């Protein structure tokens, strides 16, 4: 039986992951696919229990599993640890690097029911349907870091190899080819050498995809264009940190960061997690929106197990619940029916079965 390593992690991770598992189990009752879900400690929770954010047993389980479902890691309790021991670095970046998960896919679609939930105007966001491919194992996050004395200084090296750029850009072209055939590569080639290199490699890869319209955009302009006219975008591809920042921004085009699912792939295995963090400000209160994690479960069925029908069943159940006016607090407007985390999970389960 295929195995899924389940890593709830910290903060709201503990609340949202169980809802996603319930939904996955329900959708699979009518399917020939059986999955074995097993939970492992990660992040601050693992530091508290086992002394480190990515225990060897958890890493081994992820390496052995067919897919990984993760909640979130990090929180104020662990913020003062030395950098290499922190949940974000040791667990999240550690897992991404150890599993070679170089391609982070973050789809951003405005569901009709949520067009008034965004902080941005309905007219601007209502037709948003884009996907960001974020390079996930290179760039500033993984380049050499250090401190200097006299005078005191710090540095993070931004470096990209040709292979690293080529494989994410190729996947972006492949993604665009199956969508509206528009690819926007986001960089800062007016300043950064890594970006000029990124453009060169992108142009070379483009030769194999004449049917895809390729454009280049500076990252500062891309941030502005995303909120001015998101409809202009189909597929975006960018380096690690630009992708981190742009996707939090883009999440508001779908109503809330609580809606943004993600898949991190290496060509064989996938790790699935919401794009948001552990939300310490609302953790433990049954307030978190579990839909980004539930939708990450749908991405798992699509990308790791090729179960398009079951993936769509989850996505349709989520749409149904929202169409019926149910919202978690992050999406709610006056007049909406506000649900807690668990109750939103119940509502998706009920919609699946209806
Ligand atoms: P965050 O995404 O946790 O929260 C930002 C804001 O969005 C908060 O107001 C939060 O309440 C809200 N929010 C996030 N997810 C929500 C949801 N599902 N439903 C409703 N509201 C939601 O970002 P942050 O506050 O900058 O970071 C908190 C911690 O999470 C930090 O330790 C950070 O390093 C970590 N983090 C982890 C991940 C990850 O594990 N993948 C991602 C981002 C941040
Ligand atoms: C994300 C997060 C992580 C990142 C942090 C927690 C290391 O913000 O998954 O977007 O920057 O990649
Ligand atoms: Mn982020």
Automatic annotation (TrEMBL):
Co-factor binding comment: Binds 1 Mg(2+) or Mn(2+) ion per subunit.
Annotated metabolic or biological route of this protein: Amino-acid biosynthesis; L-leucine biosynthesis; L-leucine from 3-methyl-2-oxobutanoate: step 3/4
The enzyme's E.C. designation: 1.1.1.85
Marked site (Important for catalysis) residue numbers: 141, 188
Domain Isopropylmalate dehydrogenase-like span(s) in chain numbering: 3-348
Single Gene Ontology BP annotation: L-leucine biosynthetic process
GO CC entries: cytosol
Sequence similarity: Belongs to the isocitrate and isopropylmalate dehydrogenases family. LeuB type 1 subfamily.
Function recorded in the entry: Catalyzes the oxidation of 3-carboxy-2-hydroxy-4-methylpentanoate (3-isopropylmalate) to 3-carboxy-4-methyl-2-oxopentanoate. The product decarboxylates to 4-methyl-2 oxopentanoate.
PANTHER family for this protein: 3-ISOPROPYLMALATE DEHYDROGENASE
Protein name: 3-isopropylmalate dehydrogenase
């Amino acid at each position: 039986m295929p195995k899924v390593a389940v890593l709830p992690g910290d903060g709201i991770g503990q609340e949202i992951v169980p809802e996603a598992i319930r939904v996955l189990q329900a959708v699979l009752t009518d399917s020939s696919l059986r999955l074995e879900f097993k939970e492992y400690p990660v992040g601050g929770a693992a530091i508290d229990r086992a002394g480190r954010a990515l225990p060897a047993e958890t890493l081994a389980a992820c390496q052995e599993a067919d897919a990984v479902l993760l909640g979130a890691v990090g929180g104020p309790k662990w913020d003062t640890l030395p950098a290499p021991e922190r949940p974000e670095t040791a667990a999240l970046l550690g897992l991404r690097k150890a599993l070679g998960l170089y391609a982070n896919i973050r789809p951003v679609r405005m569901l009709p029911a949520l067009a008034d939930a965004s902080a941005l105007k309905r007219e601007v966001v209502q037709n948003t349907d884009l996907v960001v491919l974020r390079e996930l194992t290179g760039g500033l996050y993984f380049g050499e870091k250090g401190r200097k004395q006299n005078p005191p200084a710090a540095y993070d090296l931004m470096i990209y190899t040709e292979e690293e750029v080529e494989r994410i850009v190729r996947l972006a072209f492949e993604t665009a080819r199956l969508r509206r055939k528009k690819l926007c590569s986001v960089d800062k080639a007016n300043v950064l050498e890594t970006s000029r290199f990124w453009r060169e490699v992108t142009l070379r890869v483009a030769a194999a995809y004449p049917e895809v319209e390729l454009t280049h955009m500076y990252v500062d302009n891309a941030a502005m264009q995303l909120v001015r006219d998101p409809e202009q975008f189909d597929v975006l591809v960018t380096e690690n940190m630009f992708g981190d920042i742009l996707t939090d921004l883009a999440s508001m085009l779908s109503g809330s960061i609580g809606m943004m699912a993600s898949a991190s792939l290496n060509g064989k295995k996938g790790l699935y997690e919401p794009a948001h963090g552990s939300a310490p400000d609302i953790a433990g209160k049954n307030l978190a929106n579990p839909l980004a994690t539930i939708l990450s479960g749908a991405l798992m069925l699509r990308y790791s197990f090729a179960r398009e029908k079951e993936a769509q069943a989850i996505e349709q159940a989520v749409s149904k619940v929202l169409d019926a006016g149910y919202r978690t607090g992050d999406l709610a407007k006056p007049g909406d029916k506000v649900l807690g985390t668990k109750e939103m999970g119940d509502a998706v389960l009920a919609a699946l079965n209806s």
